[in-house]
């Protein structure tokens, strides 16, 4: 009832202006166009202010609610905010890291970083994979529960200082950062591959080496999940730096470039948000290792990541953990099938929609 009255008033105003009768004084007849334009603008702004009172703006900012998103898009300047000190610092550091040259090593190596509770059951398999390629790889083992017993000499002496890792918690990210920090010490390491104790190689070393060294993007899984196990885990406390529309999901196992490894260690701002506001068992069940890196890279270097991982993980069962293969499942056919996979299926949690990339 009130809004229509205002709109009518607005129309009235503009009608008045356009059918302005020729005035007695000459100059008035040539009433400059800009006044009319200005008055029209004033009308529009007043109507806008009336129909959308200012509290809507602050709501947009606080909740990024979908109700006012179209309005925000309509007047783009309203959603803009001043960057925080932390953001300005972070942006400066990240910009320079992303500007680094791609490879600075004459003897590039791949860092294989194993994140494991204890001993690695497939060391012998990895040894076969790595044999004959000395000098083109390095190995790091983060054992979070028990000191591993190594069955391959290639793994002996490769354990790094470790700490406990709890599933879903930030300690998982801390372990990844520990591995990256150790691997970055070797200036020849150019690609950083995170592996679990249940990973096995599916291609030859040369294939993997050429594949990774031949690209300048990182393989980090990243997609948007509008469902409860995606955006449902987002917390408003991540504002103002991380908005819900920035929030992403992805499987943990990555293969990243040196500058992205450095970027992860340099990031404090976004890491802190996830450390404080992305926790399992707090109602939202946010799993830091499924969201931190996808969200970070989606925000700071979206074109620099593939949005899929070179590590195959089967989430099609839609459970908390991916499909695991028992001894009886593992056959030549299965490995051949997995090796032939050339698309990543992203399983979202809204209505089990699938999307491939
Ligand atoms: C990455 O490589 C592509 C072509 O392979 C090139 O177009 C692009 O500029 C490179 N990006 C960077 C950041 O070096
Ligand atoms: C990954 O997704 C982002 C955002 O959707 C996009 O900008 C980027 O180009 C994608 N990366 C590649 C390599 O296609
Ligand atoms: C491998 O793929 C073929 C063709 O899709 C399928 O018929 C077969 O059951 C698969 N085998 C295994 C072990 O997954």
UniProtKB/TrEMBL annotation:
Lineage: superkingdom: Eukaryota
Membrane-spanning segments: 33-52
Keyword rRNA processing: no
GO terms of molecular function: glycosyltransferase activity
Record's bilayer topology term: Single-pass type II membrane protein
One Pfam family from the record: Branch
UniProt KW keywords: Glycoprotein, Glycosyltransferase, Membrane, Transferase, Transmembrane, Transmembrane helix
InterPro entries linked: BC10-like (IPR044174), Glyco_trans_14 (IPR003406)
A single Gene Ontology CC term: membrane
Localization of this protein: Membrane
Protein name: Core-2/I-branching beta-16-N-acetylglucosaminyltransferase family protein
Species of origin: Aegilops tauschii subsp. strangulata
């Amino acid at each position: 009832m009130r809004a229509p009255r205002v709109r009518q008033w607005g129309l009235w105003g503009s009608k008045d202006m356009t059918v302005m009768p020729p005035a007695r004084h000459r100059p008035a007849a040539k009433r400059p166009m800009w006044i009319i334009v200005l008055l029209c603008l004033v009308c529009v702004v007043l109507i806008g202010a009336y129909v959308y009172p200012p509290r809507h703006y602050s709501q947009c900012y606080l909740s990024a609610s979908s109700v006012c998103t179209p309005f925000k898009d309509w007047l783009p300047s309203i959603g803009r905010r001043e960057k925080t000190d932390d953001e300005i610092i972070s942006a400066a550091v990240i910009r320079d890291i992303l500007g680094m040259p791609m490879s600075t090593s004459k003897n590039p190596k791949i860092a294989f970083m194993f994140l494991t509770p204890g001993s690695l059951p497939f060391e012998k398999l990895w040894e076969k994979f790595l044999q004959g390629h000395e000098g083109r790889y390095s190995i790091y083992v983060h054992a979070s529960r028990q000191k591993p017993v190594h069955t391959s000499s290639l793994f002996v002496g490769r354990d790094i200082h470790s700490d406990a890792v709890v599933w879903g918690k930030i300690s998982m990210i801390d372990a990844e950062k520990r591995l990256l920090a150790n691997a970055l010490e070797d200036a020849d390491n150019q690609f950083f591959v995170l592996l679990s104790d249940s990973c096995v190689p599916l291609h030859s070393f040369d294939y993997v080496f050429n594949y990774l060294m031949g690209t300048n993007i990182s393989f980090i899984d990243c997609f948007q999940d509008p469902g409860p196990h995606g955006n449902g885990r987002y917390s408003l406390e991540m504002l103002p730096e991380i908005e819900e529309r920035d929030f992403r999901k992805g499987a943990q196992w990555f293969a990243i470039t040196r500058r992205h490894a450095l970027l992860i260690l340099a990031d404090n701002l976004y890491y802190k948000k996830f450390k404080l506001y992305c926790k399992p068992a707090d109602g939202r069940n946010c799993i830091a290792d499924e969201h931190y890196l996808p969200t970070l890279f989606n925000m700071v270097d979206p074109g620099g990541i593939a949005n899929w991982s070179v590590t195959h993980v089967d989430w099609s069962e839609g459970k908390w953990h991916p499909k695991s293969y028992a001894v009886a499942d593992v056959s030549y056919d299965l490995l051949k099938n997995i090796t032939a996979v050339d698309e990543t299926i992203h399983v979202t949690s809204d209505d089990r929609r699938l999307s491939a990339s």
